[in-house]
Amino acid sequence: MTSQLPFFVALDVPSAAQAVALAETLRPYVGGFKVGLELFCACGPQIVEEIGARDVFLDLKFHDIPNTVRGAAAGAARLGVGILNVHCLGGADMMRAAVESAREIDAQTKVIGVTILTSHDAASLQALGLNEEPEAAVRRLARLAREAGLDGVVCSAREIAAVRKECGDDFLLVTPGIRPAGAALGDQKRVMTPREAMDAGADWLVVGRPITDASDPAQAAQALFD
User: Fold this and answer.
1) What is the pLDDT of residue 3?
2) How would you classify the pairing of strands 32-35 and 152-154?
3) Choice among 61, 110, 165, 189 that is catalytic
4) Is residue 157 part of a domain?
5) Is residue 1 situated within a structural domain?
6) Residue range 5-44, pLDDT digits in tens
7) Is position 86 within any domain?
């Protein structure tokens, strides 16, 4: 990553023109850009190059059999992205396949695992058959990710302390569900403010709508950082 500011802006927009314009506007204020399913499916891999691959966190949450994820991770690494992710629920063999194939292509690409989405709470996990609190599930999946060789995980800021205790200070923690005080939560359930998340020990914050939906995204990004 090229900037010292620990924010990825989620470019969850439907067109390349919107994404590139936002990236150019926000580049002086943030550390990188998250390219997720909406933008990637709308624009294809070329959007990564247009934004600047090394500044991209490719958030496609690969979750499939190990051989399929091995190929997908290699393809993502060939794009030159800074970070790509898989879903920890795919299991240890799948995570190991992703790390091995990505590092064969580009040793600089970080591979991290999604633990429990920040839109989940205990009730929704129970409906899925995971009869444990989100923090316990995140801690268990983070330990599995570290054992599989991943560089870190995606978790909510509420679980940072537990994951640090489980996995150590050198484990990369990328934290979505970031909302300024008083901001609308949207579909997020496990949230913190930027200051709370950084004080808790996050390495990178992922912020989307509080910046991209603002009337002045650059001003919103600077205010959030301040």
Assistant:
1) 44
2) unpaired
3) 61
4) yes
5) no
6) 788 999 999 999 999 999 999 999 899 999 999 999 999 9
7) yes
Q: How far apart are CA 179 and CA 163, in angstroms?
A: 21
The domain of 97 spans 7-225
Is 2 part of any domain? no
Active site residue 61: yes
**CATH number for the domain harbouring residue 86:** 3.20.20.70
Distance in angstroms (rounded) separating the CA atoms of residues 54 and 80: 6
* CA dist., res. 201 & res. 22, Å (int): 28
Distance CA 177, CA 194 (A): 10
The answer to pTM > 0.85 is yes
Q: Tokens representing 59?
A: 């958030």
Percent with pLDDT over 90 in the chain: 74
Number of domain units in the chain: 1
What per-residue confidence (pLDDT) applies to 177?
A: 78
Alpha carbons 156 and 60: distance in angstroms, whole number = 17
Exposure letters 32-67 (e unless 16+ CB within 10 A, then b):
bbbbbeebbeebeeebbeebbbbbbbbbbbbbeebe
Q: Is the pLDDT of residue 103 over 70?
A: yes
